[in-house]
Fold this protein.
Amino acid sequence: MKNNVHSLFSYGTLQLERVQFENYGRLLTGQKDSLKNYKLDKLKITDKDVLKKSGKEYHPIAIKTNSPNDFIDGTVFEITEAELTETDKYEVGDYKRVLETLNSGNQAWVYVAKQEKPCSTIAENISKIKNRIEIACKRSGRKPKEIKLLLATKTVDCKRIEEAFQCGETLIAENKVQEVKHKYDDLKAFSFEQHYIGHLQTNKVKEILKYNISCIQTIDRIGLVEKLHNQLTLENRTIDVLIQVNTSNEESKFGIMPNEALGFVKQVSEFKTLKIKGLMTIGVFSSDFDKVRACFRLLKSIQQQITDAQITDLEMNELSMGMSGDLEIAIEEGATMIRVGTAIFGQRQYPDSYYWNENDKNE
Ligand SMILES: *Cc1c(COP(=O)(O)O)cnc(C)c1O
């Protein structure tokens, strides 16, 4: 950088001649360029002076995403040291000035968001969920770090899943093998863990094992166990599993019946390619919280029953239960993992029955 002359990349109001006049008393000359690994978001301006100068309530703000697909177009201006100091005053508290390399290869100052996390609703929603976890933990004498947050990402497109990754989340799950497959390429550059939480048809076993699924949470019948074991044996590997229990006794839901759970777990534990880690359930859909609580309490008691049976080579620590609407109750009843979709990503277009009422229920 030349003495006293600075390059400044602007993607916002500084490109307006009026703002240039107001700030520097002259027009700037600039060149088009772009900034990679960032995306634009909106910042609501409350500073009266800034509002008056720009005439805009919302200013664009650059947020670092580190995603090679994101970029922001703008203009590079040459300004003096004194003008840079002026600009520092104009750019309000939510921005920080950093030196970045632009698409052209040139370096320039750029004002970007102070916090690196996107200030999107997904980030806000995740922090709300963290709050709910914390409050539920306080109420039940537990620690938030005992509770894993799994994001149920069915119907959520990869861009929005990436946003959740940028918030530091690393555990996601899908319900349909097709969807796992479709998202695989777009997500494979990220490091995350993926579980499978949908009903698994035996004819999809080979397919699901092609993707990076670390745990299948929906083991509920011996036919499925055998199929998985045969394929895993061929591939010379193991996989973590949870046993799905039907604690709500609803026809529409999958899962082993509570009174058969112990026997089933004993059976599954004979298959050495399946590493049992615990239990999973979907609570009853009801506004009657006592009924919901009864489901979770039942799962906890089944866990205890299995633990008491002291089956060798078996872990029973994980209790995957609780969703957007009932996670507090699940935490109070001993959940170690909650599965949250709607409260983070918004309403889905399909009813849940689309995922849970498959025709092959009796398979
Ligand atoms: C979709 C889904 C969830 C998340 O449900 P939300 O109500 O959207 O939080 C949890 N578990 C399973 C098995 C799901 O299919």
Remarks:
- The pocket of pyridoxal-5'-phosphate is lined by residues 152, 154, 175, 197, 282, 323-325, 339-343, 355 (CB under 6 Å).
